[in-house]
Amino acid sequence: MEFFERFAIPHPSPAIYASMVAIGLTVIAIVAGLTYFKKWGYLWREWLTTVDHKHIGIMYLISALLMLFRGGADAIMIRAQLAVPDNKLLDAQHYNEVFTTHGTVMIIFMAMPFIMAFMNYIVPLQIGARDVAFPRLNALSFWLFFMGAMLINISFVIGGSPDAGWTSYFPLANNEFSESVGTNYYMFALQISGLGTLMTGINMITTILKMRAPGMTLMKMPIFTWSALVTNIIIVFAFPVLTVALIMGTMDRLFATNFFTSTNGGIDMLWANFFWIWGHPEVYILVLPAFGIYSEIISTFSGRNLYGYKSMVGSMLIISFLSFLVWTHHFFTMGQGALTNSIFSITTMAIAVPTGVKIFNWLFTLWRGKIVITTAMLYSLLFIPIFTIGGVTGVMLGMSAADYQYHNTMFLVAHFHMVIIPGVVFGMLAGLHYYWPKMFGFILDEKIGKWTAWIISMSTLLAFMPMFFSGLDGQARRMYTYSESTGFGIWNMISFIGAIGLAIGFVLIVYNIYYSTRYASRDISSDPWDARSLEWATHSPVPEYNFAIVPHVTSTDALWDSKYNNHVLFPGKYEKIHMPNNSGIPFILSCIFFAWGFSFVFGMWIPAIITTIGIFICLGHRSLEKDYGRYISVKEIEETETKLRGV
C-alpha cells in the first residue's frame, strides 16, 4: 500500500479525476484504433523508427499543436479563476500548479517544438541537403523532447504537478516549500528534453556549416537558415547552463545538498542567475526563427528580395551576443546596486536597436512591393504593430528605476505575452500556413485562415492590454484571488473574454486543418506561392531524397533566379543517392530515459540503476553497430520523379 501512496495526488479534485479518465480513454482509443486499422507496423516503420528530417519535423509540429492546447487549457483556467473577485474555482495550491505548468508547457514543450519543426523540415531543403548531418541523433533529439513532454504531463495525474512557478525559484522549489514530487518532475522533464534540444543545436550547426549546396556561401543562405544557425549557436551556449542548474537543483531535492538553500553555505540567488543566463537567451531562441519565417514570407508576398539582407544577418548576430548580457534585469529590485542596474539597463535597451533594424527592413521590403495578402502574410503584417507594443514596454521595464513600479505585476505578464504571442506564435502560425503545402501537398483554406488570424490578433490585444492597466494599478502576478475593493475585476474580466477569443481562434485552426484535409485541392504546383528559395524547388510533398539532382546556387534567391533570370538550378544528371537506414534505437533509448526520469522523480533507486545501465547498453550498441546506410538507384529516382510530376 505504501508503494502506491507515493503516486497519489496530494490534493485530488474533480478536475484531476476527470483528467485521469480522459487520459485513460485517450490511450485506450489510440491502441484500439491502431489495432483495428492494423497500423502498428506502419507506425513503427514510418514514424517511430524514422530518421527522415521531414517526418521528424512533422512529429515536432504535431507535438507542438497538442501542447498548445494543453497549455491553453491551463491559460483558460487561470483567466477564469481571475475573471471575478474572490473566485473559488481553483484553490491556491491548484492555481500554483496550473500557472507553473502553463508557463513550462508553453515555453519548453510548445514553442520549442514549433521552431524545431520548421528548422528540421525547412533548413535541409533551403541549403540543398539530403538530410541533416546526423540523422539518428536528430531522431533521438525528438524522442528525448517527446519523453520529457510526457513526463511533465503525467505529473498532473501521478504524484502532483510542479508548483514553484515556471522559473522554479529556490528556496520555493526546495523540499521544505514544495513537498510533493511535482518539482522533481520539472527537473527531470527539462533535463531530458533539454538534452534533446542541445543535440539538435549541434546537429543543425554542423548541417548548415558543412552540407550547403555548391555555390551557397554563408552570405547566400536564405535568411531563415541564418536565423536557424544563430539560434542553434545560442542553444549550444545556453542550454548547458540550464542542465547544470537542473542537476544541482535535483541534488538539493534528492540528496540534501546545499547549492540553492538559504543556509549551510547555499546561495538561493545562484539558481536565479543560472536560470536567467539560460532564460533570456531562450526568448531569442524562440523569436529569431520566427523572425526568419517572417522574412521569407514578407519577401515572397511582396514580390521583392529582402531589403537589407546584410543588416538582417548582422542584427541577428548582435542580438545573439547581447542576449547573454541582459539576464540581470530580472533582479533590478533585489538590491544589487545602482552601478550593476545601470549596466544591465543599458544592455537591455541596446538589444532593442537590432530588433528595430529588422522591423524597418521588413517595412522597406513592403515599400512599393506587389503585396499579396495571404493568411501567412496577414499574420506577418499583424505581428509588426502588436510586437512593437510588447517591445516598447520591454524598454520601459529595462529602466531600472521604473522597474520598481512594474516588477512582479501584471504589467510584466502583459509585456511578456505581447512579445511572445506575436513574436513567436504568430510566426509559427504564419509558417504553418506558408509551409503546409510543402509538407502535405495542399493549401489550408485561406478564408478560414484569415478569419482566424484576425480573431487571434484582436483577442491577443483584448486579453493582454488590460493587464498593463491592472499591473500599473498594483495587481501582482501569481496571486490567485483578489477582493472587489481593489478594482481589478473589470480588467480581469476583459482579459478572460480575450482568452476565450484566443481559444476560439486556436479551435478554428484545427477546424481549418480538418476542412482542408477533406476538401482542399491536391492539384497544386510545387511552388504555389511563387517563392524565392530552394525549398520550393522540389516536389510537394517532398520525396525522401529531397532533390533528385543537387542544386547549384548563385544568390540568396536561387529559385527566383532559376525562374526569372535563366539560372540553371539543377545541372547534371541523376546519380544514385546514399540515404541512412531507419533505426529503432533512438525511440527505445528515449523510452528508457522516460523510465529513468520517472524512477528518479519518486526516488526508486533500483529501477533508476537498471535504466541507467539500459542507457549505456543502447549507447554501446550504437557505438559498435556497423550500419553503412543504403542507396537509392537511378531507376528508383526516375520512377519517383515521373510519379511526382504526374507524367
Automatic annotation (TrEMBL):
One of its GO terms (biological process) is respiratory electron transport chain. It is a multi-pass membrane protein. One of its GO terms (molecular function) is heme binding. Its main location: membrane. It is found in: Cell membrane. The keyword Ligase does not apply. Belongs to the heme-copper respiratory oxidase family. Catalyzes quinol oxidation with the concomitant reduction of oxygen to water. This is Quinol oxidase subunit 1. It comes from Peribacillus asahii. The gene is qoxB.
